[in-house]
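Translate sequence into structure tokens.
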Amino acid sequence: MPSQEIPSEENELFEHHHFDVDRGQSALRIDKYLVNKLEKVSRSRIQAAAQAGNILVNTISVKPNYKVKPGDSISIVMAYPPREFELIPEDIPLNIIYEDDDLAIVNKEAGMTVHPGISNYSGTLVNALSWYFKDLPLFSSGEFRPGLVHRIDKNTTGLLVIAKNELALNRLAKQFFDHSVDRRYQALVWGVPKEKEGTITGNIGRSLKNRTIMQVYPDESQGKHAVTHYKVLKDLGYISLIECRLETGRTHQIRVHLKFIKHPLFNDSEYGGNVILRGTTFSKYKQFVENSFQILPRQALHAKSLSFIHPVSGKRMEFESELPEDMKQVIEKWKKYTSSRKDL
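Result follows.
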């Protein structure tokens, strides 16, 4: 059976392959078997995945010297491999709120892209990490996305976990694959959802009209399965503050799911939130909203909390970050506005 791989557009930066061993297969070490099956994957990467417990045979974790047998069902999860890309370390300030021998937690600011791409080869979080961790083997290897197992959009703020070695990288990747990492975001959205708590389920894939954005597909044969849980935290009249908990990690998941239920993120230019979608026709109200857009010139989304099992100690790690100043200012502005209007 051909391998099944999660595409590179995922917010969760890992790959998953599955093989069913042929009936005529002779006894062979599993690391050698997988080297033959996986194109451009080194034996050392496969062995690192095995040491992290990320190679399962018939749902049981195995070591690199396991001998495959006919009929075995093999699953392997790995962090994404290096790409042919010259990565230049750059001395860019980072807000690291926690660090130990195995991982770091970064609180990312708005405007910083997580990793290099065709349109931006420098100034990214990865360029900054490659400088900060330049003495670590994982970050001096020239990999395209060293230490990353997930990402957030350029203009989304908040928490990211960074692995500092191969073992941590593989074990964290497995937690994201298993959906055992708890990630909670706070967002300002247009309108107030009728249901104060709910779940949005809808396959997400690239838009057929605009390949730079995503859309929800009603047909389950298109796109990738995606689930977002939400809860209304504050009713601010024509907008609301909500919490979103990710069950899956698709590109732009929260942004496209909230547009799908007709509550796009406040000032999200790619998903229609940068125009007045709720409220009055008064010119003063229009000016009030425009002023809010100037204070918050991006989509109103913040990765607020992150919880996972430490890849080496096995302890539960929990991290929180404050809302950025631009979101706090807009919330206060809308609180004052709604308190002065009796019709809301």
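Note: The chain has three domains: 14-79, 96-178, 183-339.
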